[in-house]
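can u do me a favor
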């Protein structure tokens, strides 16, 4: 390195990759409700514009575009084509777009916790990718060419996955920023207690969201079920020191061993809502309607299974059967 500034011709082009090109193409096709022509796409999507600059023949670029369209369609993206009335005399002016409504989550869709966690991870990956240099360049080109609104934001296209645990994002941020927090917690068959903790990690284990943390008062690692937090989560204003990887791994190993001690065995009636719930959240097991799985909290599991009524039969443990029966008796007495 000489420290001298590079001239315009000294910059090396970053190689184009198909995933980056497909992401850029998707964002471009989502950005304009009236669609974009091939020419407009070839100018705005970096993969195509680089090919043009490198002297690739138009026929080869067209074939690349057709393959990319098919790749998107194979992944379930609805790439649509139409010709404007003003262009009917020239069928080469086809315009392409992705209807924004096809990126809306279907109404009534229900996901298991494991499926939800996978979608959350995918959403985070999408969010990071949508702010990549490649995607940003594509949108800047579209804006410069007048083919996208100035208010277009890439993050607007990112999927937003919500959970039923309102405190999950706040706890994840507190763990990231090492912020001490406090909340009220109701343990099974106990009164509400105030907890002050150092959040380490939010985990999804055996069907439940929980917080792995350091309990300040008890001076020990604790796991708190998010469903049992009964107040707002508030920062105390204190920041704690970063933990070591060994500390976290030890806490997670203790959690894993605890979970392995709790195993439930249930059978379900085929074709019912309960069957769909377990079938979609389990590994393939030869068509059996009996499921064996680990759990974290027998009372919370009983609440989940109770809604399936007689379509679920609990074989083990007996504590789970008792918890379900007790809950049903309380409901019956309340409506007597």
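np, heres the sequence
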């Amino acid at each position: 390195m000489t420290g001298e500034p590079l001239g315009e011709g000294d910059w090396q082009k970053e190689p184009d990759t198909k995933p980056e090109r497909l992401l850029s193409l998707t964002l471009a096709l989502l950005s304009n409700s009236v669609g974009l022509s091939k020419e407009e796409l070839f100018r705005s999507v970096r993969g195509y514009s680089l090919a043009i600059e490198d002297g690739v023949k138009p026929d080869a670029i067209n074939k690349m575009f057709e393959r990319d369209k098919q790749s998107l369609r194979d992944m379930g993206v609805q790439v649509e084509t139409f010709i404007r009335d003003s262009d009917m005399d020239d069928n080469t002016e086809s315009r392409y777009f992705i209807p924004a409504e096809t990126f809306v989550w279907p109404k009534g869709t229900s996901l298991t916790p494991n499926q939800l966690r996978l979608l959350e991870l995918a959403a985070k990956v999408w969010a990071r990718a949508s702010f990549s240099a490649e995607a940003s360049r594509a949108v800047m080109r579209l804006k410069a060419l007048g083919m996208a609104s100035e208010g277009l934001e890439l993050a607007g296209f990112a999927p937003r996955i919500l959970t039923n645990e309102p405190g999950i994002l706040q706890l994840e941020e507190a763990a990231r920023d090492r912020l001490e927090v406090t909340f009220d917690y109701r343990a099974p068959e106990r009164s509400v207690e105030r907890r002050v903790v150092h959040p380490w990690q939010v985990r999804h284990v055996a069907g439940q969201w929980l917080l792995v943390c350091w309990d300040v008062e008890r001076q020990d690692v604790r796991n708190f079920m998010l469903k049992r937090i009964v107040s707002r989560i508030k920062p105390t204003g204190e920041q704690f020191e970063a933990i070591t990887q060994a500390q976290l791994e030890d806490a997670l190993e203790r959690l894993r061993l605890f979970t392995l001690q709790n195993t439930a065995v249930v059978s379900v009636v085929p074709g019912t809502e309960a069957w769909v719930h377990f079938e979609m959240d389990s590994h393939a097991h030869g068509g059996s309607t009996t499921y064996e799985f680990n759990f974290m909290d027998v009372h919370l599991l009983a609440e989940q299974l109770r809604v399936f009524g007689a379509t679920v039969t609990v074989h083990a443990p007996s504590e789970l059967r008792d918890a379900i029966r007790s809950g049903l008796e309380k409901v019956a007495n309340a409506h007597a």
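The chain has three domains: 14-157, 168-245, 263-334. hope that helps!!
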